[in-house]
Design a protein that fits this description.
Blueprint lengths: L2 E4 L2 E7 L10 E4 L4 E4 L5 H19 L5 H21 L3 H9 L1
Parallel strand pairs: 2-4
Antiparallel strand pairs: 1-2, 3-4
Helix pairs in contact: 1-2
């Protein structure tokens, strides 16, 4: 996957540039409309990180407040959704077909 639409913004999904951030798994750049994901992560960790960054973008685009709790909430929801999608492989297809 190389792009994801969140709200009215199409974000490109790119690996971190070399040496960019060794302590981060992912980062959303709203100015450049890019979600960076650490390329050395396992496929499962990449999926969780992408969900995590998507939730940060949703949080920002909907002007949610309480920044001190944002990271904890986004992490819990991202990991929780990743598990639900993994444990229920037909769920995303069902949701997609229900929205059409």
């Amino acid at each position: 996957m190389d792009r994801v639409r969140i709200g009215y913004i199409d974000f490109a999904i790119h690996p971190f540039p070399n040496g960019f951030a060794s302590n981060l798994d992912g980062k959303t750049d709203f100015t450049r409309q890019i979600i960076h994901i650490d390329e050395i992560l396992s496929p499962e960790a990449k999926a969780c990180t992408l969900l995590h960054e998507i939730l940060h973008a949703v949080w920002a685009l909907h002007a949610l407040s309480d920044d001190d709790k944002e990271e904890r909430i986004v992490t819990a929801l991202g990991n929780g959704l990743a598990q639900v999608f993994r444990d229920n492989p037909k769920l995303l297809s069902f949701i997609k077909s229900s929205l059409n």
